[in-house]
Write a structure and sequence with these properties.
By secondary structure, the chain is an alpha+beta fold. The protein is 25% helix and 35% strand. The strands form 3 sheets. Strands 9, 10, 11, 12, 13, 14, 15, 16 and 17 form a 9-stranded mixed sheet that branches. It has a 5-stranded antiparallel sheet with strand order 4-3-2-1-5, with no helix packed on it. The protein is globular.
Length: 315
């Protein structure tokens, strides 16, 4: 087991690199760790090939850190998991609007080239959002070329958001809570909506919440409503967790952990292996909770807006 000492079954779902001894020759393999049956690792390469590697052939292995490409790919997954009801593509810039409900549903997602120069892309985006009575915002992965370009142009960054990820196996192995009191439904109940964002959810918000193809809603019921809620949207191999909220006065009692465990067990049944969530980087208590469950930061993003736009809000 020396060769896989830096890997464990809790890493199933993670992207890994291993060095194996194949016919006496060292060979490197990078891919998604799909299973670990005790005798062999099953690794899915980017080209789709599934490679079975006997543990005895593994010289060394480790989890691979995310690249900029991986960050932008996950931004696309997260956008589809939080679908804006009004959208249009400009090349690979995804302009999205939802009547102003949450900045991440009302900002451009630059997933590649817009197909025109940056000045023209910003002009088109500004006009598109102006038609909808909204300011133009661009959600940028921190450190990406578009983030650097907009910063040079003086575009202002709203508070940074940490996108945190883990394997479902690792989170469930670190969470001993059995979510027996958590109820899962295919749509949000009135009680669920009453807790989410203080109960102020417009029709566009309901469209976002229910618009993903594979979605479920969790709640911890009580006699007068719900104590905690959460939402999960699956796009294999990912599941995104959103709307993890606990009633004030009921926090620090394990309700959030129970909701997360129930959502991840459901997601695993849908074929998901990895989980992501988004949290304000400055929200130290929430970050600490997720870190205790095995989450680590995958990347950060900021929403940038023109200096002519005075208002700011978190994505």
């Amino acid at each position: 087991m020396r060769g896989v000492s830096h890997l464990s079954p809790a890493d199933v779902g993670a992207r890994v690199t291993i060095r194996r001894s194949l016919d006496g020759r060292p060979t490197d393999l990078v891919g998604d760790l799909e299973s670990w049956d005790g005798d062999a690792l099953a690794i899915r390469r980017r080209d789709g090939e599934l490679v079975l590697v006997p543990i005895g052939e593994v010289v060394t292995g480790r989890v691979v850190g995310p690249s900029m490409r991986a960050a932008i790919e996950l931004e696309g997954v997260a956008a589809r998991g939080w679908p804006a009801p009004d959208s249009e593509w400009l090349g690979e810039w995804w302009m999205r609007a939802a009547g102003g409900f949450t900045s991440r549903a009302n900002a451009v997602r630059p997933l590649g080239s817009p197909g025109v120069d940056t000045d023209e892309a910003l002009r088109v985006a500004a006009a598109w959002y102006a038609q909808r009575g909204l300011p133009a915002r661009v959600q940028c992965v921190v450190g990406a070329s578009v983030d650097r370009d907009l910063r040079r142009r003086g575009w202002v960054a709203d508070p940074g958001v940490s996108v945190m990820t883990a394997t479902i196996a690792r989170v469930l192995s670190s969470n001993s809570i059995h979510p027996d009191d958590v109820v899962l439904r295919g749509e949000p109940s009135p009680e669920w909506l009453a807790l989410f964002r203080g109960g102020e959810v417009p029709p566009s918000g309901v469209a976002i919440l229910t618009g993903a193809p594979t979605v479920t809603f969790a709640s911890v019921p009580t006699g007068s409503g719900v104590l905690a809620i959460g939402r999960a949207a699956v796009e294999k191999p990912w599941v995104g967790l959103t709307a993890i909220e606990v009633l004030e006065g009921e926090r620090r009692r394990g309700h959030a952990r129970a909701v997360i465990a129930a959502l991840l067990r459901w997601a695993r049944e849908q074929g998901a292996m990895r989980v992501y969530l988004e949290v304000l980087a400055s929200n130290a208590p929430a970050v600490a909770l997720y870190e205790s469950l095995g989450f680590t930061e995958h990347h950060r993003y900021v929403c940038r807006h023109s200096p002519d736009t005075s208002e700011a809000s978190s994505c």
